[in-house]
Design brief:
Layout: H1 3-34, H2 45-51, H3 65-70, H4 73-94, H5 113-126, E1 129-131, H6 151-161, E2 165-166, E3 174-176, H7 181-187, H8 202-212, H9 215-219, E4 224-228, H10 233-237, H11 241-245, E5 248-251, E6 266-267, E7 292-297, H12 303-312, E8 320-323, H13 333-338, E9 340-343
Parallel strand pairs: 1-2, 1-3, 3-4, 4-5, 5-6, 7-8, 7-9
C-alpha cells in the first residue's frame, strides 16, 4: 500500500473514532450509572473504606498492591473508571487547559469543553474493547462498506483493527458483538418470504458466548454493544430481551417509536461513502460563512416528508433549499451540505435522488 493510501486510511479511521468511540464511552458511563439490572455497577464498600476515597473532594483513590491482589478483574476495571471520572471532575472544576494541537474543543456546542477534552484524552489512554472471535463471515466480523448503509461495515472493520481492541477480556470496558444486521438481511433473509425466524440467530450467538464466557451473564449484557444501520436492526434485537433492554445499540435507525432508548443507545450518523472513504466529504467554511440557511434533498416517503415539501418545496427563497430532486443533476449533494448552515435529516429510506 502506498503512502497516499495509508494517509487516506488513517484519516478515515481517525474521523470514524472521533465520532463513534466518544459516543460509546459516554453511553457506557451513563448506561452503567442508570442501569438497575446490571451487576457491573459495584458498591465498592470494602474498597472505599480501605482507601477512604471521597468523590466529593475529587481525590484520586490510591490503589495499593494489596488492594489490587484482593480485587477481582471486574473490580480493577471499575476502580480504573472511578479514577478517570475523578480526573474529569477535577479538570472541570479547575478549568484546566491541555496542549493538544490536533484536537482542542471550542464553541458553544460543548457544555464544558474542558471536561469533554479530558474525557477524550482519558479514553485515548484507557478505553479497551474486547471483540468476540466466535462467528464466521459474512454474517459475523464483516459487513458491506459501500452504499448508504456502508458505515456499518466500515466501523466493524475499524474495531477489528483498532488500537482500542484488546485480546484480554478481563481488562475490557465493553464487549463487541460482531454480527452484522446488513449481512443477516443480505445472506440469511429470503426475499419476499416475510420469515423473521432465520434472521434471529443472534439468540443462538449470544446463548453461545454466554455459555463460554462469564461477561454477558455478569452484566446481563449492559457492557456489550452492537452496530447496525439497517432499519430492521431494532426488531432483530428484540428477540434477545437483554440485548434490547440493557445493551448499547449503536443504530442508524434511532427512532423512539421503534424503542430506541436515548439513555443507553447511540445514534449513528448514516452517510453515503461513494469511495469507502471520507476524503473530500468533510470540512467546509464555518457556519457564519455558509451561504444557504437550510438544505434538504430526498424522496417523499412518509407523512413528515410530504408536509415538508408542501410547506417549503415550492418557495423561491435562495436561503431555503428544499428539494426532492437536486437540480441541475450536476449539483453536488455534499457540496450543498458544506455550504448550508442547517441540513434537515428526516425519517425515510432515501436521502437524495442523485448522489454526485
Amino acid at each position: 500500500m502506498d503512502s497516499t493510501s495509508d494517509s487516506s486510511s488513517s484519516s478515515s479511521s481517525r474521523v470514524v473514532w472521533l465520532i463513534a468511540v466518544p459516543l460509546i464511552l459516554v453511553s457506557l458511563y451513563f448506561g452503567l450509572q442508570s442501569s438497575t439490572s446490571s451487576t457491573l455497577v459495584l458498591s465498592f464498600g470494602k474498597f472505599s473504606s480501605a482507601t477512604n476515597y471521597d468523590s466529593s473532594k475529587n481525590i484520586n483513590p490510591p490503589i495499593g498492591e494489596l488492594e489490587k491482589m484482593l480485587m477481582s478483574s471486574l473490580e480493577r476495571v471499575e476502580a480504573g473508571l472511578v479514577r478517570v471520572r475523578a480526573d474529569i471532575k477535577e479538570a472541570q472544576s479547575k478549568n484546566q487547559t491541555f496542549d493538544d494541537p490536533e484536537y482542542v474543543p471550542t464553541g458553544q456546542i460543548y457544555g464544558n469543553p474542558t471536561a469533554f477534552h479530558r474525557s477524550y484524552l482519558e479514553m485515548e489512554k484507557h478505553f479497551k474493547i474486547y471483540v468476540y472471535e466466535e462467528g464466521d463471515p459474512p454474517v459475523f466480523h464483516y459487513s458491506a462498506s459501500q452504499g448508504i448503509l456502508g458505515i456499518e461495515g466500515i466501523l466493524i472493520h475499524q474495531i477489528e483493527i483498532s488500537k482500542f481492541r484488546t485480546n484480554d477480556p478481563e481488562i475490557a470496558h465493553v464487549y463487541f458483538l460482531p454480527f452484522s444486521v446488513l449481512s443477516i438481511v443480505s445472506y440469511v433473509y429470503v426475499v419476499d418470504s416475510r420469515e423473521w425466524g432465520p434472521m434471529r440467530n443472534t439468540t443462538d450467538y449470544i446463548d453461545g458466548i454466554s455459555r463460554k464466557y462469564p461477561y454477558w451473564n455478569r452484566s446481563l449484557g449492559s457492557d456489550h454493544f452492537m452496530f447496525a444501520c439497517h432499519d430492521w436492526a431494532p426488531k432483530i434485537s428484540f428477540v434477545v430481551p437483554y440485548l434490547y433492554k440493557n445493551s448499547i445499540r449503536v443504530l442508524c435507525n434511532a427512532n423512539t417509536s421503534e424503542r430506541f432508548d436515548p439513555i443507553k443507545d447511540v445514534s449513528l450518523p448514516e452517510i453515503y461513502l461513494p469511495h469507502v472513504t471520507m476524503n473530500g466529504l468533510i470540512g467546509g467554511p464555518s457556519p457564519s460563512h455558509r451561504s444557504v440557511l437550510v438544505f434538504y434533498a430526498g424522496g417523499i416517503h412518509g407523512y413528515i416528508r410530504q408536509v415538508l415539501m408542501e410547506q417549503w418545496g415550492k418557495n423561491d427563497d435562495p436561503d431555503v433549499q428544499i428539494h426532492e430532486y437536486l437540480r441541475p443533476k450536476n449539483v453536488s449533494y455534499y457540496g450543498m451540505i458544506r455550504k448550508s448552515k442547517y441540513c434537515i435529516c428526516l425519517s425515510g429510506y432515501e436521502f437524495v435522488n442523485n448522489r454526485k
